Amino acid sequence: MRPNKVDCRRRQLQRALALRGRRAKKKRALARERDREFVVGRRRNMPNGRRPQELQVFECPEDLNLTGSFDQTARFLQTFRSFSSRSNQSKVYVDMRPIERVTPAAALLLVAELDRWRRKRRVPLRPRDAEEWNQQVRSRLDQMGFFDLLGGSNESFRLTEPSAIRYLRFQTGTNADGRPFLMLYSRLEALLGKLPGRPRLFQAVSEALVNVGQHAYLRKKKARERPTRQAGAKRWWISASVDTAHREVTVMVVDHGHGIPSTIRRKTTFEKVRKYIKNDDAEMIDAAIKLGRSGTDEPYRGHGFTRDILKFVDTHKKYARVRICSNRGVLTYEKQAGEPPKTSLANHKVGIGGTFIEWKYAI
Questions:
Q1: I need a surface site. Which of 143, 151, 190, 336 has the fewest CB within 10 A?
Q2: Is the dihedral of CA 57, 90, 222, 298 positive or negative?
Q3: Phi and psi for 14 in degrees, rounded to 5?
Q4: Contacts (Cβ under 8 Å, ≥6 apart) of 178
């Protein structure tokens, strides 16, 4: 029996739909493969001499630090975060070869940005030609756990000669759990022996982690740092470093929230008008500390900065300093042995998009 025209047409339509489905499946597979292409290092040559399409290049500055090169470091981190917050399928190339110097603070910020990218995009990160990077920079990033994000470390990344500065591997989490700090502190004591001030420092770090969960990631309609809106979970990163030559310890906490200046309430008319006249992020950090102000009107909130975060500096017998970088403002609370503490404020053109707190003290 010969098929009629209706049956022939139906079979043709089925074959066309099947072919379209196979093509769509292949297209989705190619898109997933493109999304996996995250290269930290040199650009990779594509098959048949083709160059990768839509390759986004990020070139690191020579000096990554939050003291002498704050704006350059913050601009690089914010540009990278702004790009990662957008939903696109571009390939990414981070050129690490220009870096000649990286401080513990900048190293933790860089690790946090890449870890955020990895968790948000669910894309494996891979190093390319890491042997061309500065040897000291590569070794210190390896100590902090940078290469664990890129598929594992390598013995060749470590310095053959011992260095006076030692970085500790970062820890990350989403709740105010004190165990990551206790792990870091045990590693510090393994390097230096028993250290003073453990209870006070534990209270300070715990208060910083509590603030991350209660304030940093609250959704606000007028957040000043747009990239922080898409920071995701209430995640923080913590790390430490040791300078055996100067006998100094540094403990650091960073989050990608809205920042203290964007969450604290402006109560006076002067404060409300001042934000339209100039950048006053540092002054708002100072208000959060001196006036015990928080993002809520609850009377028991807002006292943790003075009671816990700064108290460690007041009670430490030797040199101690706490530095709070939030968005574009920096507050430094510093005390020399036998002298009263001093506070300094600084505002910058570019913000870090979150809050970074660093305790540094002599042992």
A1: 190
A2: negative
A3: -65, -40
A4: 202, 205, 206, 209
CA dist., res. 264 & res. 294, Å (int): 5
CA distances from 313 to 166, 171, 195, 197, 298 (A): 23, 23, 15, 10, 27
**Which residue from 135, 67, 123, 122 is spatially nearest to 96, judged by alpha carbons?**
135
pLDDT tens-digit map of 18-46 = 888 888 887 777 665 554 444 555 444 44
> 237: closest CA among 319, 306, 144?
144
Question: Which letter does DSSP use for residue 335 in this model?
Answer: E
Beta-carbon-side half-sphere exposure of residue 81 (alpha carbons within 13 Å): 28
pLDDT digits (tens, 9 = 90+) for 56-108: 888 899 999 998 899 999 999 998 888 877 656 567 788 889 999 999 999 99
Tokens 């048949």: give the residue.
48
What is the β-pairing status of strands 171-173 and 38-41?
Answer: unpaired
User: Rounded to whole angstroms, what are the CA distances from 164 to 135, 146, 244, 248?
Assistant: 15, 20, 5, 11
Token match 């820890």: residue? 171
Interatomic CA distance for residues 80 and 23, integer angstroms: 33
Written as one letter, the residue type at 28 is R
Pull the structure tokens for residue 332. Answer: 């430094």
104 within 8 A of 248, measured Cβ to Cβ: no
Residue type, 4: N
Which residues are registered as beta bridge partners of 325? 330, 356
